[in-house]
Design brief:
Blueprint: E1 2-5, H1 14-27, H2 36-44, E2 48-55, E3 58-68, E4 71-79, H3 88-101, E5 107-113, H4 117-126, E6 129-134, E7 144-150
Parallel strand pairs: 4-5
Antiparallel strand pairs: 1-2, 2-3, 3-4, 5-7, 6-7
Helix pairs in contact: 3-4
Length: 153
């Protein structure tokens, strides 16, 4: 198993990018999916941290956070359907958050569909706390739960 953060540690291949897009398509509804150009934009932008989890030479998960001074926001996290419910999401997110602390990030925020109980349970296990609800936030008018984790004091 290999985890890369900030993607400067390895060369992103066309196969890696295709696998990232496939995982994104498996996990997000049409309106929230990204294409290769979207991912390349975030990967190459300096204010974003993009972490990739590889197993048997294939990408099985990724996560992305935006950094703004001492705060960050988790934009996306996804694990391949074939590797879900095996602890890889918790592992990837935990290491991603640890990596953020190297940039003096003190807290990380996220928003998640209030009906996505699987994700909410994962976030709570990691240490996120519920802080707010955004009514009718998503395209389908469902609410978003805003969560926060304190990384450093």
């Amino acid at each position: 198993m290999v985890i890369f953060s900030n993607l400067s540690a390895f060369n992103l291949t066309k196969k890696d990018l295709e696998e990232i897009c496939l995982i994104d398509n498996q996990n997000f509804d049409f309106f929230y999916r990204w294409d290769k150009q979207d991912f390349l934009f975030y990967i190459l932008s300096k204010n974003y941290i993009f972490s990739v989890l590889k197993y048997n030479n294939s990408v099985i998960g990724f996560c992305l956070s935006f950094i703004s001074n001492v705060e960050s926001e988790l934009y996306k996290i996804a694990i391949s359907k074939d590797y879900q419910n095996l602890g890889f999401g918790k592992l990837l997110l935990g290491l991603h958050l640890t990596y953020l602390t190297l940039f003096e990030v003190k807290q990380n925020y996220l928003e998640v569909n209030i009906n996505n109980h699987k994700a909410i349970n994962l976030y709570k296990k990691i240490g996120y706390k519920e802080i707010n609800i955004r009514k009718n936030y998503y395209f389908n008018k469902e609410d978003a739960l805003i969560m926060k984790i304190q990384l450093k004091k």
